[in-house]
Structures are given as C-alpha cells and as structure tokens.
Amino acid sequence: MKYFNRIVIVVTLVIGLLWMNSCSSEKEKTAASNSTATVAVTLASPAGSATGGINASGQIESVETANISTRIMGYITRLNVKEGDHVNAGQVLAVINSQDIDAKGAQTNAMIAEAEANVNSAQKDLNRFTTLYNQLSATAKELDNVTLQYSAAKARLEAARQMRNEVSAQKNYTTLTAPFSGTVVQKSAEAGTLATPGMPLLVIERNGNYQVSVAIPETEISKVKLNDKANVNIKSTGVSFSGTVAQINPSSQFSGGQYIIKISVPESARKDMYAGMYVNVVIEGKVNAATAIDNNIVLVPQAAIISKDQLKGLYTVSANNTALLRWVRLGKNYGTDVEVISGLDKNEQFILSAEGKLYNGVPLVVKK
Phi-psi category of 157—alpha, beta or left, where left has phi over 0 and alpha has psi -120 to 50? Predict the structure, then answer.
C-alpha cells in the first residue's frame, strides 16, 4: 500500500511539473507574440481651425451630354447599341421605319414630273404667243394670260421640289447617328418600340471630359466668383483635387432655389473618375467675419476615420500605450478634413497612420 502511495505521489509531481512548464511556455509565447505584434504609428493633433470657405455637395458629370431622339413617328427597326458601348462620331445608332416617308417621296417625284411637263408646255405657249404678238397676230391680253400661266407652272414646280427637300429631310431623321465620340450611358427603348417626336432613346456622354456640378444656396451665391479655387473630395474613393469655378448660373428658377455652379476638373485628376460620383466641395470664396469658421473647430483627415456599419471612429493611444478605438460624431466636410463634433478634444492626439493592423489593445510604438 505504501509502495502504491509513493507511485501516486511521484506521478502527481510529474504532472505538476509538466503543467508548470506548459504555463511557462504559454506565457513566453504570449510575451513573444505581444512583442512581435507591436505596431508603429504616427500621431497627429486635430486642426484648430479651417480656411474660410463655402461647403457644398455635388456630383461629377460629363461636360458634353447628348440626348438622342427622333423628330418623326415610327417603329424602331434597329437599335445597334447598349449601355456602356463606346460609339464614334457619325456612327449609326438607330433606324426608324420609313415606309410612309418613302411613299410620300414617290408621290413628290410624280408631282415634280407633272410640274416639269406643265412648265415645258407653258414655255412653248409663251414662245408661240410672243412670236404672234410681235407679228401683231395676238393681243397683249392674250400674251399676259400665257405669261401668267407660265409663271404659275414654274411656281408649282418649285413647290414640288421644296416638298421633295422636306421629304429628304424627314428621311434623314429616320437614321440616328452619334453627334460625337463617347459612351452610351442610358438606353430607353428597344427595337420594335414606337418612337415619337422628342422621345428620348439614348443618352451619350463624351469620354474623359468631366466637371463638378454643385448647388449653392442663395445666402452664399454672392460670395462665389468665377475662377475661385475649389477643393473637391470624391466620397467613394477618397481622392481629392483642386479645381476652379468655371460657370455660375445666375438663376435658381428651375433648380429649386439653388444656384448651380460648375467646377473644372484638371486632366491629372480624371483617372478612375466616373460621371455620377458624389463629391464634397469647399469653395474658397469671399468670407467675412460673420461667416468665418470658428477657430475652435476640431478637424481630422478623413483618411483617419474608421467606419463600422453606421458608426464612425478613430484610433487614439491609451495610457498603457495601446490602441484604443474612439467612437466620434462627425460634422461637415472641409475638403480632405472632416469636423469632429464630439468624441475627441482639440488637445487630444489620434493615430494618423499605422504600419500594421490596428485593433483595440494592440501595443504601439510611436514614430518620432
């Protein structure tokens, strides 16, 4: 029995030693893991003020857009393109049935042939009565009547010829061509559809030439001038660029009380740009003391903001020198910066960039 107890004690000691070694190894692994997971970060302080300007939202649009429609009624026999297709200037886009126009053209040709025959007959009568009048064998009244008949015949011939020109013009409207090279961005009909005058069939945008369209309220439109600098930030991509105010619409009658302005887009900023993208714009217009931005505003770069579902936050450094995700409430956009209304004090630092993945509790080393 004593021998058995000794064996039990020895086995227990062995198990205890193995467990202690395992815990020690785990601690060493954890320490090593924490050591290797340290992330180098760059800190920044919020901007204490922003350049005075006018903030607005808008969209990128093509400088040239064409709505393709027809001036005649008829069934579409061919529609050769679809949305996204590139088209060249003069390329045939659609064909409208023209049987009725062809029939009218045939009638016009017959009228011209009849009118030409009448003119030839009237010309002969005029020549004959002119000779008789010179020989005193016809009266002046008879010559005047023949002359009027000849003039009327020529007028009917000219009317028939102009009718033929009208038919030819209508015939041209049955073939719709691209006014310039671009991309089909909208298709509103298919082959077999009955097209009516003014009915939009296609929309084409010229490639590579964009501008920004922004609506400005009447309280601020007086501060915007041509050639004012505008800082534009594309919401979806985060890309920012500078442009200038190229056009100001002086009327808001057809735009819901908003004044539409156009901002030029430099060629260097057009890569990966598409019409319809939403943008935030800050126009460096004339700002007086009453409209100047508060110097106590807290601004951080939009690139530092973390989005999770509907929440917005940024990383700060905790007292233990680890990453701490701070949820914040955001306000207006100012070019590449965004206002922090709550969640971050103007004297607190935040993580601007990191050389690794950030998460709550990850050890940090601050780059100088």
Answer: alpha
Tell me which residue of 333, 338, 340, 339 sits closest to 55, measured CA to CA: 333
> What does the pLDDT look like over 150-169, one tens digit per residue?
999 999 999 999 999 988 88
Polymer length of the chain: 368
What is the Cα–Cα distance from 298 to 341, expressed in whole angstroms?
7
Across the beta sheet with 182-187, what order do the strands follow?
Answer: 65-69, 200-205, 182-187, 86-87
Do both 71 and 201 map to the same domain? yes
H-state helical runs in the chain: 2-36, 99-134, 140-172
DSSP symbols for 36-73: HT-EEEEEE--BS-----EEEEEEEEES-EEEEE-SS-
Distance CA 299, CA 45 (A): 9
Low-confidence residues of the chain, pLDDT below 50? 1-4, 8, 10-11, 14, 24-25, 27-36, 287-292
| Number of domains making up the chain | 4
Asked whether the beta carbons of 246 and 263 are under 8 A apart, the reply is yes
CA distance 94 to 194: 12
Is the domain of 182 the same as that of 214? no
CA-to-CA dists, residue 101 to 74, 116, 158, 197, angstroms: 10, 22, 20, 15
Q: Pick the last residue of a domain from 122, 151, 173.
A: 173
The angle that helices 99-134 and 140-172 make with each other, rounded to 10 degrees, is: 160
Q: What is the pTM of this model?
A: 0.53
Last residue of a domain, one of 283, 316, 345: 283
* Domain residue limits at 274: 54-63+209-283
Measured CA to CA, the distance from residue 95 to residue 198 in angstroms comes to: 15
d(CA 243, CA 232): 7
What is the maximal distance between C-alpha atoms in the chain?
Answer: 170
